């Protein structure tokens, strides 16, 4: 790994409500190890010397963000989130452009509810993609047997898992290229589920960087419980 890692901007889309958690607040504000999930998700970037600044996309009426200590961190700027993830990320990129960020600057987009990103994985991503012409993302190869089903829930075939990877975050792309890909895909009304899919739609081939499987996204209650148990075992 190179000793010299590129500087970068970070974007955290955090305007979602996380309905599958069935909680009394958006999942990014649930507690984990004495802090909110969102604070942990931000922490790995805020502790990194290569961070140029961080933009968090939030719901306009979000009442929880102002209560967090990090809301007053001068390195963090808040923008209004969109109806979907792609809109939230695009708003953040537009803000970075308005603040003078260059098209060639690296931007790392990370899930608000992915609190267990390791510094080693972050540095590995930065090092491996520092000179990549496209960019890429952390990912994990599929481990289990995979099935493709029909509309009735019956198996059609077993999928070759050696060709399947789970997309994780951060996802790292040049500001200008990602901005264009997201803006054009929104105009074309294309379904975009992450930044890599926008770049793929634009004709690019992002590179996968294998990361840790415990960099999981909190989606269901059992995900949060698993992390709580794992973190309690560290003490």
UniProtKB/TrEMBL annotation:
The record marks 20, 27 as: Transition state stabilizer. Pathway: Isoprenoid biosynthesis; isopentenyl diphosphate biosynthesis via DXP pathway; isopentenyl diphosphate from 1-deoxy-D-xylulose 5-phosphate: step 2/6. It is an enzyme of class 2 (transferase). It holds the Pfam family IspD. GO terms for molecular function: 2-C-methyl-D-erythritol 4-phosphate cytidylyltransferase activity. The record marks 161, 217 as: Positions MEP for the nucleophilic attack. It catalyses: 2-C-methyl-D-erythritol 4-phosphate + CTP + H(+) = 4-CDP-2-C-methyl-D-erythritol + diphosphate. Its EC number is 2.7.7.60. Transmembrane segments: none annotated. One of its GO terms (biological process) is isopentenyl diphosphate biosynthetic process, methylerythritol 4-phosphate pathway. SUPFAM superfamilies: Nucleotide-diphospho-sugar transferases. Keywords: Isoprene biosynthesis, Nucleotidyltransferase, Transferase. Catalyzes the formation of 4-diphosphocytidyl-2-C-methyl-D-erythritol from CTP and 2-C-methyl-D-erythritol 4-phosphate (MEP). Belongs to the IspD/TarI cytidylyltransferase family. IspD subfamily. NCBIfam families: ispD (TIGR00453). This is 2-C-methyl-D-erythritol 4-phosphate cytidylyltransferase. It comes from Pseudomonas protegens. The gene is ispD.
């Amino acid at each position: 790994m190179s000793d010299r890692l590129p500087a970068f901007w970070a974007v955290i889309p955090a305007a979602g409500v996380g309905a599958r958690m069935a909680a009394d607040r958006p999942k990014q504000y649930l507690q984990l190890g004495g802090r909110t999930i969102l604070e942990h998700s931000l922490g790995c970037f805020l502790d990194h010397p290569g961070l140029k600044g961080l933009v968090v996309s939030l719901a306009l009426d979000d009442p929880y963000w102002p209560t967090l200590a990090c809301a007053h961190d001068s390195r963090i700027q808040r923008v209004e989130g969109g109806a979907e993830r792609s809109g939230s990320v695009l708003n953040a990129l537009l803000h970075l452009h308005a603040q003078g960020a260059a098209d060639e600057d690296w931007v790392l987009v990370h899930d608000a509810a992915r609190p267990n990103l390791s510094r080693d994985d972050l540095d590995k991503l930065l090092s491996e993609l520092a000179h990549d012409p496209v960019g890429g993302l952390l990912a994990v190869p599929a481990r289990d047997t995979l099935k493709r089903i029909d509309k009735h829930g019956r198996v059609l075939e077993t999928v070759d898992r050696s060709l399947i990877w789970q997309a994780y975050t951060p996802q790292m792309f040049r500001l200008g290229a990602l901005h264009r890909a997201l803006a054009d895909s929104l105009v074309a009304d294309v379904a975009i589920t992450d930044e890599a899919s926008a770049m793929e739609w634009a004709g690019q081939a992002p590179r996968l960087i294998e990361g840790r499987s415990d960099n999981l996204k909190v989606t269901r209650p059992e995900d949060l419980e698993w992390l709580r148990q794992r973190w309690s075992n560290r003490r």
